[in-house]
Request: fold
Amino acid sequence: MKADLLYEGKAKRVHEAKDQPGKLVLSYKNDATAFNGKKKATFSGKGRLNNEISSRIFRLLHDYGTETHFIKQLNETEQLVQQTEIIPLEVVVRNQASGSITGRLGLDENTQFNPPIIELFYKNDELGDPLINDDHALVLSDVTGNELKEIKEKALEINHQLQKVFQTINITLVDFKIEFGRLASGCIVLADEISPDTCRLWDITTQEKLDKDVFRQGTGDLLAVYREILKRLEEIS
Ligand code: TMP
Ligand code: ASP
Reply:
């Protein structure tokens, strides 16, 4: 099913799909990293959990009308996607304050953002993914001003769709990071993954953290909380 390795990231490998030009195989790894790779560990089964979770979320977003790179889940750890050129922007949407924004802006955790806040980070490990503004994004990526506007509108729509999904399974979507890619046609679609690696997900009733913060902060069992997210998604997808 897969041919040459094109790229290896911290959480996934990207292969060309064998005999299917224009398609890629994403292969989810068991590795977890935090703080720009400074903290690392391997969790047997994490790749399967994130593949299952992200595949389900991308299918739900498709049902809501969001265009994505996702084609289908191939097996436990792999999915088939349309080839895109990834736009080097990490688009973060925040519904309430947690993580980097609390220290950067001196905000209390839980401060609500209505409307949500969008932040752009330049996807560049050597620079530590710095926070950038729109003018920087136009210099650092090949998007036009209108496309950047479109990306932000899509990010807010995806936020609404994800909030609905997670609310159904008793989870608050605190924030998340998404990436967009450009198809050969020039269209920009949602790419990469959406998983507990890339979202903050808190149980509505108990406020328990069900995402990678348990690994970042060393406060819980990563596999157990990822399993819990998958179990709840399986009830609705
Ligand atoms: P932050 O509060 O650390 O800036 O993270 C905001 C959101 O983005 C959070 O849900 C975690 C996610 N995220 C990633 O997916 N990748 C990253 O490299 C970082 C820093 C955050
Ligand atoms: N900073 C990312 C995170 O905490 C992971 C990493 O950069 O190693 O999600």
Q: What stands out?
A: The mean pLDDT is 98. The first strand starts at residue 2 and ends at 8. Residues 92, 99-101, 129, 175-177, 198-200 surround thymidine-5'-phosphate (ligand 1) (CB under 6 Å). The radius of gyration is 17 Å.
